[in-house]
Amino acid sequence: MDNSVVVCGRVFPHAVLKRINAAVRDHPQWTRADLARRVCGWLGWRAENGKSKEVNCRVALVRLARRGLITLPAPRRTVRFGGSSFAQTPLNVPSKLEGSVKELRGLKLVLVSSKDRELDLQWKKLVATHHYLGYRPLCGAQMRYLIACEHGYVGALGFSAAALYLKARERWVGWSHGARQCHLPKVVANSRFVIAGGVRVKNLASKVLALALKRLPEDWAKAYGYKPLLLETYVESKRFAATSYRAANWVYVGKTCGRGRQDRAHREKKPIKDIYLYPLVADCQKRLCEEPGPARLSPKPCTKPPKPPQDWVEEEFGQVRLRDRRHRVRLCTVARDFYAQPGANIPQACHSRAKTKAAYRLFEHKAVKMDAILASHYHSTMERIAREKIPVVLAVQDTTSFNYNTHADMEGLGPINNHVDGAQGILLHDTMAYTTEGTAMGLVDIEVWARDPQQFGKRATRAKRPIEQKESYKWLKSFQGAARLQRQLGAATTVVSVGDREADVYELFLLAQSDPLHPKLLIRAEQDRCLQDRDANLWRYMQSQAVAGKRRLDLSRRKGRAPRHCVLEVRFARVELRTPKRHRPREALSLWAVYVKEIDPPSAKEAIEWMLLTTLEVNNYEQAVEKIDWYNKRWGIEEYHKTLKSVCRIEDRQLGDRTVWQNCLAIDLVVAWRIEHIKKLARTQPLAPCTIAFELHEWQAVFALQRPRQPLPSTPPSMREMTRLTAELGGFLDRKSDGEPGSITLGRGLQRLHDIVTGILLVQNLHPAQRHAPSSSRPFPSKGSYG
Fold this sequence. Notes:
This protein is α+β, with helices and mostly antiparallel strands. Helix content is 36%, strand content 19%. A hairpin with an 8-residue loop joins strand 13 and strand 14. The chain is globular.
């Protein structure tokens, strides 16, 4: 970004600045509006609805001219915002109107556009006459309404861009600077609301607010291409009691500081106002706090590089947003302790009574929530994918259960099988991002819940209940997490949501196809659905298709099954699935199906037969094989669940409350991912230097212990070699028939590695002279954050 300037959140390269100056010199007849229109085209500066952001561009051009970087055409006219334009406009307002809102006929909101001269002047004159602040132009994106009834216009409403910064609002939303920078346009201010002076109609104000809240999102989306998520307004408490806003369920969050919108010098003394907010969607705070990715993050004028994280723990938890800074420090300490001894209980992992007590206090604190802990890891997952420029990401989702039948004192448990009086525990539905080679990049979304025993026996009514009231809604919620990742990464990366047969939910396909910018979908079908224009069902139709080719597939070792190779017959076709009766009338679902069946399986029970449904195009054999390989990577999340239970031993955690347990689970989830990440890197990038996952003193310590007769290499060993050396510390024998090390031996090896490095650093601290020993004595670095 050399010789570039950032203005109004937009990068103006030096070449564009020269082009602007040349255009002004060569085209003296151009107005500033003409120039802004062309600059928007050069920069691709457009709003979400595709329209050029000419007003923003004109503001940026003026700022560039003030800096002396460009020359602008002389202004053709000076715009004055006074009352002369509407001074002669007669108001169509009743002089006196009393009664109740139920008696008022024809009450409605009339959308005001600047193109409609009559309505525009009526709105300005009404606000200027009856609002105590008079008429001022609204700032930024805006929407205006006249409140009409059979007697004429009884009031006016104005919505505009939100305040740049409000301390009380930021505290209520809880977003970061980057999230506020990205999502502030989705906060809209109710900057004008006035009822004509002669109108005394009971409940009119709250009724008008209800009408506006219902209509505004759609009108805003038509004008600007997106729907707002949150409304805000400011009420001068010395003048008004805000009764109508309270009656309409607006939430009071605090007060302003008495500054005006343009008061950058803090010199104006304006009345302090109460701040009220109204969420337009249920998950407003969650969506506003969504961290922007490279596709949506505006460039910053400051090019100072951020401070790099000390280790992987800071990379995953360094951006966690907790109220107390000490909680973040303690969180990182606990995460390091858990990673150093993943199979240990909490007192054993924390090493001391003081650290153990601090860990329990962290988990029990009311301000510490699982979602807040994992939000930082979600953001790190996105940054990792963007940094490595991965073109396709597989967002694999699956469900697992934790059995706490032996922990009778734990609260908040529920049945985890099909019997209400069966095993008790907690359910987890998680989404993990994988590369197409199978490397785990990090978690995308998780859901934790316990079944209510009172809900058993309602299977007969499942067709009558909406999807939001069913447990299968978990697939849609996790898909929304994948959609968040897709929005953050933009068009540079394609996110594909992958699920097993349980994900064969009709509403999931509807959600995937509801927006062309949503992630793609790849699931294994379970239902033999009817086709739209054919008598045959899905399975019979696909079996009748010609074999496109044969594919050899390597099946990994699983419980009760040795690793083996199989040969699959591949068929694919485009299908139109008939809409279920409960969703009619709707158009048929247009999908692509890939059907594979094993040739000569060892037994009918072990035979591979997959019916894959996808929203991705499958027009040839190569694309069909690609989808088969992608679905085969789904098994990685099963291995992750095994690591979580067998290595991190989450089912052995003895915590009395489910909320406390969830905070502990959040750390164990990231620790288990880290182990899986290292294991997969050794297989997908075996020749990469081990420094992508291990510190300098770690690989030197392992190499010195495992290869005592060899001098330390000048360059780090490969990822595969270092992972095998570490796994040998945990019992991996490294025989020719052993294959690659698994997560259990790797986890035990990482624990021994921590003890070895801690011992070496302790010796160096006791004998400082050894730090300056010659290179032949195999010195080790003295820095590290262990224990």
